[in-house]
Every structure is written in structure tokens, then in C-alpha cells.
Amino acid sequence: MSKARGLAPSALRRRLQGDLDAIVMKALRKEPQHRYRSAKALSDDIERLQTGKRVTARAPTVAYRATRFLRLHRESAAAIAVALVAIGGLAAWEEHRASRPVVSQTQPSTAQVHMRPVLAILGFNNLSNRADTAWVSTALSEVLSRQLAAGEELRMVPGDTVARTRIDLGLSDMESVAPDVLDRIRNNLGSDFVVLGSYSDLGKQSGGQIRLNLRLQNAVSKDTIATVSEMGNEGQLLDLVSRAGSRLRERLGLSPVSALEAQAIQASAASNPEAMQLYSQGLIKFRTFDSLAARDLLARAVTADPSYPFAHSALALAWQALGYDNETQAEAKRALDSAARLSREDNLMLEARYYEASRNWTKAIDTYKTLFNLFPDSLDYGIGLARAQSSSGKGKEALSTLAELARVSTYAKDDPQVDLAMADAAASMGDDKLRRDSADRAATKADHLSARLLVARARTTECRALANLGDNDRGSAACDEARRIYADAGDRGGLARALHSSAEIPLNQGDYAAAERLYGQALAIVEQIGDKKSMGSELGNLGVICVRRGDFVKGRSMYARALRSYQEAGDKNGIIVVTGNSGNLLRAEGRMTEALASYETTLKLSTQLGHKGSEALCLQAIGDVQLEKGDLANAVEQFGSAMAIQKEIGAKSNYASTLVSAGAAWRQQGETKKSLDAEQQALTIQQQLEEKGSAAETRLALAELAYDSGKLRDAESLARTALAEFRTEKEPVQAVAAEGLLSRSLIDQGSTSEAKQNLDEAFRLSRETPEMIRGLSLRVDDAYLFAALKRTADAEDTARKAMAEALKLGLFRLYLEASLALGKAELQSSRGAGRVRLQTLAKDAQTRGFVLIAQEASASIGDSAPEVK
What we know:
The chain is mainly α.
């Protein structure tokens, strides 16, 4: 071969690039395991080459598959090229990319993708009325779906989607369908054709004989295109469906099934009747919300046929519904490992599911991009791509993908699942306003289609967004609607999720008893259905309630139980959440070193998972702790890293929160203008997002800056506005801080009597939530009140105790604050001692970067102070 091409043998390998080259080289391999196993295998590969299909001699990279597709479908290549540009280009497995011209991102195009006809198999009426043969309808539907999908000339509606629609519309298996019902089915599924019919199966006593009657109907004109009847038996289900499917394909004008496509169809069915029956029974249970029973049946199915990829894939989905991540990943991997002979679409779909299960979002995104590019008329793949992007923290990219999907697909604008995916993207970015609006659109569209389960899902999402935005009445209404739908449909998992979202509303209102009751109801349901992951979520939220009530012991116990549930489920995301919450609890107790260790563990896990949003939250939390411990430079660095990530992924809400934290650090450094700009920018974002509680916290930070500048009336006004919101939302910890700052501004204005009232209320609130940092800050405020009342001894004693406690806990910022209060009190009783203390304080504070405190200490004794920038 090297002589024929005029090349040295060493250079030949680099030039062998075509399919024919690959076939020849494989046929000539010396190692038997790398050669074709038979002459027929070689002949089959040559047939693949001649028909433009993927040859087995070449590695099945994404780039290669896409290249073959473009050669087969040149007429739609322009539209696909535009789609590739908009969603980031054709991604490849590993690092391979197709060689193709680059289309300018600004190149205008009005091309739309070719939309294949859509066909839905609605199921088959069991004329024998035997419960032991009910599984046959599902088995027939599954096998027939892949028979009709061969050749990629039709787009088949997934069986799970059909099952959901049947529940939504209250349909059972049927031989025929009334015109008005067919209209509702078509609107819901977007199908151009439907297949339905009946079968008679008298069971094993009759030898498993089956008579199958099929009806192919045009969903638009309502005409019956074909009726087909075939005889067979349970043991040869594939043969029975192949004969019936061939007749349907002929009436639909589809190409005959090739030998290679027939192999893929055969690989998509179980190898024995027992496995097929168990698989079908498992699907029925899964689609009617009984994941525990589905898991057991599907586990038996893969035992009966260990090489059946779809049984492994369905078992993975059942494990996922039960919250077991490790088992989900293992079964998804087994499905992919046994998928080599499936069609490229099925193979890629199982690959995408495996990468999702293993949380390898980069590869999941690449695989969904390939699916979307190969089958651009399939909304499922575009939505899958967007969801993978959202899960990886790339919410902005997900929104771009959905915008492109709407541009190339005529169906996208009316599909509620596109809006639901947009709501998911918004949630990943912390944009509750967009999340609310997208979910509301999805619910409205789903209601128009009578897609009740999608309505429930959308209302649950909307409820959560409304709760975050403080719109409690609308949030309650949305959750109530979702709960009614899920209860009517018998979807206990969905009901538990709606109860969970419902609990967010009383939790935000400070009605802990109501929130606890709702979380408890959700916990009872998920325990019944065996959902370990959701058990961890409900236990974790019950722990949050305990912490907010000030019951730190019970809160820690709940967190420990939640952690065990997440560990049993192998849910790393859940472990991140509960570990982060445990860090918050440790911080509230003043155990800063332990809190820091908890946050660092959470950061490590978040980085490993590639969860950028969680990573940024960890960095912010670490920065908050470093600020309290007195390491301002490190705190500012952590905040900067967090904001860079949040800006990159479009997490507006969290970005604003980190801006507030950074502003607090810059305030201590004396960077007044920088701090003010940060707080005002944060407030603008929070107002745009309609986050009333967060905006109140930012106003309190602005009140601190006004107080520092001597603008006491401004400080008082801002503090009162913030306090009113904290009272409305029943946020006692924040209310304590607002009462404390309000008391200081009133003291400096000479209103000591009113200041005392504010402090008394703050102390009352602090007893409800024993949060250490707020409690110590309150004692410093109390020292200032004693000093203003000329109770110098009480002021000094209170400040000294606060200093000692802050020093013990390693709270350097509070130690400096208490030292400042003590020095000022000592100036009243012993001028010399107070002066020495404040001089020392100014020096220590300046050394550690606390310029604001150094300035105030120096100003109190008339010394020159560092300039506040």
C-alpha cells in the first residue's frame, strides 16, 4: 500500500484517513482481536461505506459521526451549521473536532431545520383482560417504536412522554380514539401520526400466542392510513413487531429497514421473554410513580438479561428517582457498555445519561450538542443540552441554547418544557424574577395543552421563586395548585416536592411551626417511597428551622441525619449543602476555625464536581470568616474570586450578596468610596430582582457607612427601613443588627431613652436566636449606651467581657470593636488609661488593615488618623 501511494511506510499511517483506508487496515491487522471476525463482518462494513453509514473500522468519535451525518443530509447542512455556531460549535469526544468551515457568528440566516414527521405510539388495548399479560402493551410499544425509528426518517415521541400525556388526559389503552381526543393528544404531543390498537394474549396456558391489531392514524386529518393484523407469540415478540412494523413503514413511505438497522433493532430488545416481561412491568411501575417496585422488577430484568442496555438504563432512572447516585451511575455505565450495537441515536442518548449520572457535565454537554446537531428537530436534545449547561453552572449558555432552539424550531415557542428549562437556567443564576416569569409561562402553555403534570411542575418552580421574592400569597396559590394536581395523579414524589416548596413560604415569614409541619409531611412521603436523597433534603431543612429557633443541638442532630441520608444515596451535591449548613451553624456558635474547615471541605467537593455556583458561595463564606478573624486581605481575595465566578455564570443574586460582603471588608479597610459603590451596586441588582430581604440587608450596610461619615439621620432612616422589612419577614438575626445600629445612631443624636428601647428589643430577639457574632456586637452597643448614660463602670465591664469573649473565639474584628468601646469608656473615668489603650488600638488596627477602627481610635484622643479613602 505504501508503494502504491508513493509513501514511506512510516508516513503511511498519518495519511490513512478515509473510511475505505480504515476498512482495509482493519482487515490486514495481524492481531485476531483487532481484525474483522468474519467475512460477513467485512462485507457489512463495506455496505455501511456504500450507504454512507458509520463504519465500525473507525473510532466512533462525535466529530466523525457528525461528518457522516452531514454527508448524508447536505440539504440541511446550512441550517445545522448556523445552529452549531450559536451553541458553541460541534463538540467532539475527547479532543477531536470535525474539519469544517467556520461560520461567522454574525452571519445572518433565516434557514430552519428540516422537521421530520412525528409519530406517537399510544399503546394497545388488552382484549384478554388478563393482568398477567398487561405488560405486553408496553413491550409492543417499545419494540415497535425502535422499528419505526430506524433510518431516522421519523421522530418518535418517547414512551415516558406518552405515559405522562395519558395520565394528563385520563386515557387508557384503546383501539380507536375520538376526533376531539385525538386533537388533544396531537396538541399535547405534537404528533403528526399515532399508532394504537389491541392485542389478544391468553397467557402461557395458550403457548403465549398473540394476535396484534394496529391502526395507523393521521392526527391532523383524522384519517386511518392503515390497519395491520399479525399473529405471533410472546417468545418471538421481535419477529411479530418486525412484520407489523414493516407494513406500517411501507404505508408511511419509509425506506425498508437495512440489515444494519435490523441488527440495531434486535439489540434494542431483550434476548429472552422473561427479561422483556420484567423490563416492561418495571417501566409500567416507573411511569406510574412507583419507583421502588420499578427498581425491583428492573433489577430482575438485568439479571435475566445482563446485556440488555435499556433495562440497565431504566434501572438507572429508577435508582435516580430513589436518590441513589452511585447506583444510578453504575447502571448508566452498564447501559452504555452494552449499547455498541444500538442505533447511533440510542447509543448517544445512553452516553448522555451516563455523563449526567456521573456529573461529568462537560462530556454531557458535548454529547447533547452532538445529539442536537444530528437531530436538530428534536426539542428533547436541545432542552437536555440546556439542562446540562444549567447543572454545570453555565446558566447564561443555557439561555443562549434555548434562544437558538426557539430560532430553529417552529415548535419551541409553544412547548412549556422550553420555558421550564429557562426557569432552571434562571435558578442556576439566582435570578428568581426570570425563574418566576419563565415558570408562569410554562404553566400557562401546559394548561392550554392539558398537560397537568407539567403544570404542577411549573407551579412548583414558580412557587419557589415567588417565595424567594417574598410574594407569599401568589407563592402559596402556585404551590397549592401543584399539590392538588400531584395528589390527583398519584405522583407522591411530585407531591413531596410541592410540599417542600410550600414550606419555604412560612419559613420566610418566620412561621417555623407551619414550615416544620410541611417539611415533616414531605419527609413522611419520601420515606414511604424510599427516596434517600429527598430524605436528606427534608431533614436538612428541618435542621435549618432548629437553628433559626436557636436549638443548635437539635439542628446539629438533624444535619447529621441529613448527611447520613446523602451519604447512603451517594449524593455529593446534598453532602455539599449539609456540610455548608453545618459550617453556618458552627459560625453562628462562634466556632470559626471549625466553620472554616467545614467551608473548605465544601469548597473542595464543589470544585471536584465542577459546581461553580456552590464554589463561589463557599469562597464568600470563607471570606466572611476571614473578615471576622481579622485577615482582611485574604477576605478581600476570597470575595474577589467568588464575584469573578458569579459574574462568569450570571449568578446575579449571589453576586450582589458577595458585593455586600466585599463592601463590608472595604469599609473596614477605610475604602469608603469603594465600599459605597459596591453596596449601591448590590442594592440596584437586588431591587431589579425584587429581593426585599436581601435589599434590606444592603440598606443596613449603607446605614453603617452613613454612620461612619457622621450622617446620623441618614443612618437612622436606612436602619429603620431595613428593620421594618426584617420585622415583616420575621428575620430576628438581621433585626438584632438593625436595632443595634439604630441605637448607636440615636445615642449620638442624644436620644438615649429611645436607644435603650431599641437595645432592649434587640436583646429580646437575641435570646430567640443565640447567634454569637450578633450577640457580641450587641454587647458592644450596650457598652456605648452605658457610657452615654454615664454608667462608666458598667460600660467598661461590659466592653471587657465582650473583648475577652471575642479573643477566646478568635473574633478579631469584634475584639477591636470592643477595645474601641472600652477605650472610649475609660476616657470618662481615667483619661490616661483610655488614651494609652486607644493609641495601642490605633496601631494594632492599622497594622492589621482595619483602618476605619484605627481612625476612630485616633480621632477619639485627638491624634492624627490614617486617611479614609
